[in-house]
Write a structure and sequence with these properties.
The chain has about 425 residues and is an alpha/beta fold. The protein is built from 15 helices and 16 strands. Helix content is about 40%, strand content about 15%. The chain has an eight-stranded mixed sheet, sandwiched between helices. About 45% of the residues are buried. The chain binds nicotinamide-adenine-dinucleotide.
Length: about 425
């Protein structure tokens, strides 16, 4: 039983779908989370990831047939499992990585370790973390040796929220690495069972850690480039979107979409891991630094472009509606969403703000949030489209103005309504 049991630490956006994938592959799973309310919900059959197909259903069925349990007891989970997979977050405090959650999970795991057990880290981390925070810690504290008494791998998660389980099982090969040959072999067997596209074996733990961050910084830098190009095009009275479409017809060019900023727990965070790692060895990562600055300024830029349209049209702005709280279209995740900075800028200009999101039901921030777009738009003098939710693609000026009940200024920061009359689009010439 223990030989076939995996404890997953952190049942979040990554750990939830991953635990479901292991259950579906025939493993026994112990899902561990420090969030008591979340564990209670899972055990009561209440969905925790309603936007991720199959995950909640897999949990309910597995609890019923005894192939999964969900608990807050990480020590017991370690004692009863051979494999310990970690998906707890590593966040930033003042732009420096904070390993508190990881250290706490490692302490729980350490107290239940047995000979032959394996730890696999999936959280995104600065290169060197698996070696320093896991291997060295366990070797020092338990007086055991990696590759002889226990095994360690690093395997980054590459999901796209909203289709996470499919990504894990079908869409991408799984990147794996090990502390040595034995760990790598165990990782290959473990992940080979869930990833239909197989595994890509990296030569070192650090190479696998770096791979994940490289994917993230690639996106951040390219979004910064798109933002700068869009703003420059706007100033030069050149239509960015026309330029982008034409440029991307060439296979070596992939200009990204500009927007109100970059949110989520991944892309805005990973460049800082690399900047931190570079600084730690007396080096620099200037491109990542400048890209972060550009992307972090975008909500401010969007609000000033929006306000400028009111000045040009000699209109006054009392109430604005922001369409989209999620950091990206069609997800229910508002972590580090640029919409929050837009809200705060508008409020500082004494504008009443209402926010609509089709998927997010509540927020900790003091703002009027609704899932009803008619309610959100009623009475607005201005509208900012901040998120590219699919449902916004059907909008046009007439529909929006019918819902506001007046003739609002509409500023589309995501290019969702590009080409439709009377809509100002970031980077377009109107
Ligand atoms: N969300 C994504 O799209 C995505 C994609 C790839 C990689 N990642 C990475 O995966 C990691 C997790 O991200 P996430 O989005 O799933 O975060 P999340 O916040 O959705 O989930 C993390 C979970 O870990 C729990 N937790 C915290 N400390 C714990 C502990 N000591 N023991 C057990 N549980 C604990 C939290 O309560 C939470 O439920 C991060 O490193 C992130 O960068 C995320």
């Amino acid at each position: 039983m223990r030989e076939n049991t995996i404890a997953v630490y952190g049942i979040g956006k990554v750990g939830g779908p991953l635990a479901a994938a292991f259950i579906r592959a025939g493993y026994n799973v112990i899902g561990v989370d420090v969030d008591r309310e979340k564990i209670g919900m899972i055990n009561d059959g209440v969905p925790i990831l309603p936007n991720e197909p199959e995950v909640d259903k897999t949990f309910s069925e597995a609890i019923k047939n005894g192939t999964a349990i969900f608990t807050t007891d990480g020590k017991d989970a370690s004692y009863n499992s051979k494999f310990k997979v970690i998906t707890v977050p590593v966040f930033l405090i003042d732009k420096v990585p904070d390993f508190t959650a990881l250290k706490s999970a490692i302490n729980d795991i350490g107290s239940g370790m047995k000979e032959g057990d394996m730890i696999s880290l999936e959280s995104s981390v600065p290169p060197g973390t698996t070696r320093k925070q896991i291997i060295m810690h366990i070797e020092r504290n338990l007086k055991i040796k990696v590759e002889k008494d226990f095994y360690v791998s690093y395997s980054p998660e590459r999901i796209y929220e909203g289709r996470a389980l499919k990504d894990i099982e079908e869409n991408y090969p799984k990147i794996i690495s090990g502390a040595g040959e034995r760990s790598l072999k165990m990782a290959s067997e473990l992940y080979g069972k869930i990833a239909k596209k197989g595994t890509i074996k990296m030569s070192t733990l650090e190479a696998a850690e770096m791979e994940k961050l490289a994917e993230g910084v690639y996106r951040d830098v390219n979004i910064a480039l798109a933002n700068e190009l869009a703003l420059l095009c706007g100033k030069m009275k050149v239509d960015f979107w026309e330029v982008r479409n034409a440029a991307n017809s060439q296979p070596y060019c992939n200009i990204h979409r500009p927007g109100a900023g970059v949110g989520g727990n991944c892309i805005p965070v990973y460049p800082y891991f690399l900047i931190y790692s570079a600084n730690a060895i007396g080096s620099q990562f200037r491109l990542a630094e400048i890209s972060r600055k550009i992307n972090e300024r975008m909500p401010v830029v969007v609000v000033s472009e929006f306000i400028e349209r009111f000045i040009i049209n000699k209109k006054s702005l009392k109430t604005a509606t922001v369409l989209g709280l999620a950091f990206r279209g069609d997800v229910d995740d508002d972590r580090l969403s640029p919409t929050y900075e837009i809200i705060s800028r508008l409020k500082s200009l004494q504008v009443n703000v209402k926010v609509h999101d089709p998927l997010i039901k509540s927020t900790n921030v003091d703002v009027y949030l609704t899932n009803d777009i008619k309610d959100a738009l009623a009475g607005a003098d201005g509208v900012i489209i901040a998120t590219d939710h699919s449902s916004y693609k059907d909008l046009d000026y007439e529909k929006i103005s019918n819902m506001t009940g007046n003739s609002p200024i509409v500023f589309d920061a995501r290019g969702v309504l590009y080409g439709k009359p009377n809509i100002y689009v970031l980077g377009s010439i109107r």
